[in-house]
Amino acid sequence: MRKIILSILGVLFIIGAFIIAKNLIDNKNKPRPVAAKVIKTVFTDTVKNTTIPIVIPANGNLTAKQRVEIYSEVQGVFRNGSYLFKPGQTYRKGQTLIRVDASEYYASVQSSKSGLYNSIAAIMPDLRLDFPDIFSKWQSYLNSFDLNKTTPKLPEMSSDKENYFITGRGIITSYYNVKNLEQRLSKYTISAPFNGILTEALATEGSLIRSGQKLGEFINPSVYEMEVSISKTFANILKVGESVALTNLDKTESYTGKVSRVNGSIDATTQTITAFIEVTDDNLKEGMYLEANLNAKSIDNAIEINRNLLTDNQEIFVIKDSILDVIPAKPVHFSDTKVVLQDVPNGTVILKRQVPGAYSGMIVKPFVETKDN
């Protein structure tokens, strides 16, 4: 009986193993579900070759085109003037910026002028006797001589005898000594060379000024220049007089300048050339930082696209029958974000935006913009 039970259990175990094995085999051969193919939607653009202007970005700080560093050539005490010598003070052309006490030096100048006058007066009797034809000329000179005014120019010599006579009396030497002293006396007063504003003051009223001491800086706030450095590639293209668009850092204000000068040499270290942009505006201040866009040249039969659309192999993606393909392109100019290309046929459909993982042969769906009725 026991053997019969064991035999039955063995048969059942074999049948169960067979059924389990059959189920495993059936499940293994069951076809897997096919994943749905995803077609990416892309933004496209149609090529239309035009003339592309090449714009060179540059930046720099504004400096006054007319700037004067004020130095003293004489020594003395700084005397008060009509206006305080302080930064921000405006002056008109000819107004006194600085007046140095010249009372002592003025007395020596007056003494020399008096000596010249006496020397000429001493020869007048001899001129009346020996040179009666020129006596009236020198008499008129003496009559116009004023110690409180600038020494007038000596009369013109009409003959060699007159020249020898006047020179032999030391009058010519005395005259030029006086003119030299008067010239130095004028340095005790520094006047504004143009309408402008004082931007730096290094001396105060009542202080002792020494010869060679820097006293301040004076600028014309109506015209400014900005120095920019550009690639040597554009050395023969950039022209004086070209209009330049300028903006501030916040892009809130725009100005228009022009190229006033272009340096004739290239910096050997940076291989750049320096250009100067002149700009005029009441809202500008010295030291302001501006960005400039210089129009260098124009390229015919070209297009401009984003730099990330150009592959490392100098190719761009095109769309033919909803399939991506690549064609060679000829880049002629790179900017920070754009590239200018030539030799791309008109009517070619290209990508407008970069597609992650794009490859030649990839099936895509061009994006079609729908218009609301």
What do these coordinates show?
This protein is of the alpha+beta class. Among the domains are: 30 residues; 79 residues, conserved putative lor/sdh protein from methanococcus maripaludis s2 fold; 67 residues, OB fold (Dihydrolipoamide Acetyltransferase, E2P) (Beta Barrel); 83 residues, no CATH class. 25% of the residues lie in helices and 36% in strands. The strands form six sheets. It has a six-stranded antiparallel β-barrel with strand order 3-12-15-14-13-16. β14 and β15 form a beta hairpin. α2 runs antiparallel to α3 and α2 runs antiparallel to α5.
User: Biggest sheet: strands, sense, closure?
Assistant: 6 strands, antiparallel, barrel
Low-confidence stretches: none
Helix-strand pattern? HEEEEEEEHHHHEEEEEEEEEEEEEEE
Q: For the largest beta sheet, what order do the strands appear in spatially? A: 3-12-15-14-13-16
Mean pLDDT across the residues is: 86
Rg from alpha-carbon coordinates? 45 Å
Number of helices: 5
The percent of residues in helical segments reads 10-25%
Structural class, please?
alpha+beta
Rounded to the nearest angstrom, the distance between the terminal CA atoms is 91 Å
**Oligomeric form of this entry?**
single chain
